[in-house]
From TrEMBL:
Residues 24-135 form the DNA polymerase III delta N-terminal domain. It catalyses: DNA(n) + a 2'-deoxyribonucleoside 5'-triphosphate = DNA(n+1) + diphosphate. Residues 223-322 form the DNA polymerase III subunit delta C-terminal domain. Keywords: DNA replication, DNA-directed DNA polymerase, Nucleotidyltransferase, Transferase. This is DNA polymerase III subunit delta. The keyword Amino-acid biosynthesis does not apply. GO terms for molecular function: DNA-directed DNA polymerase activity. The lineage of its organism: Bacteria, Pseudomonadati, Pseudomonadota, Betaproteobacteria, Burkholderiales.
Amino acid sequence: MQLKLDGLDAHLRQAKAKGLAPLYVVHGDEHLLVLEAVDRLRQTAREAGFSERDVLVAERNFHWSQLVEAQQSMSLFGDRKIVELRIPSGKPGKEGGEALRAVAAQPSPDVVMLVTLPRLDFATSKSAWFQALEGAGVSIKVDSVDRIRLPAWVGERLALQQQRVEGGEPGRRALQFIADKVEGNLLAAHQEIQKLGLLYPPGELTFDQVHDAVLNVARYDVFKLSEAMLGSDVPRLVRMLEGLRGEGEATVLVLWALTEEIRVLSKVRQGIAAGKPAAVLMRELRVWGARERLVPQAAQRLTQGKLDAALAMAARLDRQVKGLHDLPPPGSAPLPAEPWDGLQQLALMIAR
């Protein structure tokens, strides 16, 4: 059974009357939301009498027989128990896959199993072991909070602690300010929202109160650059590049991330021109998440000539960041002396 995260509370209310499923799989990359979902499942299980807890982490050298033993062995005190299995890599391997299929095939009425996984790619979501888990219990997919929806998400979290921003433009600015300051970091956003709850009483928050309380806790992620570039969000793109530069990120890594995205755009552009559906191209190129929507849009608005020019500039920047002499084609302008300025020019070629 598949369940969306926003349907979990309703499912748990129903489970209090009818009983929990024997197995739950929570998967996604948004660590805060995964933790919260597992906490709610764990609390409901405890209220239902599952008082003991075994925690297993499937890392290197993990013995999968421990999982089968944990499910089949009775508690020393005869209590029902929760078995938590965490698979950080999302790849249990052949032995692990067989063990997961075995526990899915023989659920125990005295055990609730909670399996946590990172975001799954298409092939993993169709694997025999994952299909077995999903068929035996409940699968909960935890999607990332889209950057556009982040201010609204912050507002919803404030409401949970009986706080709200002032109405109109000042309130929208306050929510946007928090979203900008916690760029890509929901755990940090959660901490800042909790801090507002400690500093101020329930009720309305002004922009000045939010501004004075919220720290700059942005996590500038080089792999998030593509979302800003593909979505033509120039202010965010420039802000992230400046943040990465200030944090001392390696220029070669930033260049690699931008270049790989441009190569994907070029392949998509060529595929669309050849008549291939965008959905097929996304699967072939392993484009998931927010990029699955942004890449086809960007490929449609960019010409092949623009993409070829961007790749040529990336090749010149590659020589520059490695300390080699630039070899500009005839009639081309020289690169900026500072590589970070060149990286910004490259990103803006695609964003604009």
